[in-house]
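queue> pop job 88
queue> type: inverse folding (structure -> sequence)
queue> payload:
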């Protein structure tokens, strides 16, 4: 059900509300930033810890970097898997989407 407001009149309809303005498609950078933020929030909620600030993440430059790896079998540690899940595009390391990557290989509870 969609709540639509047209010329000050509220209507409810099954289909999405029409728009008079053209929709701006998000850029890849905007999509990646939003996904990164969502994953970081999910990871911090799952572990009960705060998400590291940008300054804290930048404090360890070069330790890990996004290089195209996506799978647990390509990781060398739990810390590395967590970095890839929080910072890199399209990781495939959290099948149950609980914010904890590679639970069977690296990050056991």
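queue> result:
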């Amino acid at each position: 059900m969609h709540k639509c407001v047209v010329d000050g009149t509220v209507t409810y309809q099954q289909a999405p509300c029409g728009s008079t303005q053209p929709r701006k498609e998000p850029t890849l950078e905007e999509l990646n930033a939003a996904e990164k933020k969502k994953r970081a929030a999910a990871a911090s909620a799952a572990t009960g810890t705060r998400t590291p600030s940008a300054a804290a993440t930048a404090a360890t430059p070069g330790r890990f970097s996004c290089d195209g790896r996506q799978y647990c079998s390509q990781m060398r540690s739990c810390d590395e898997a967590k970095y890839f899940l929080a910072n890199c595009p399209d990781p495939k390391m959290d099948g149950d989407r609980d914010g904890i990557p590679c639970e069977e290989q690296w990050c056991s509870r």
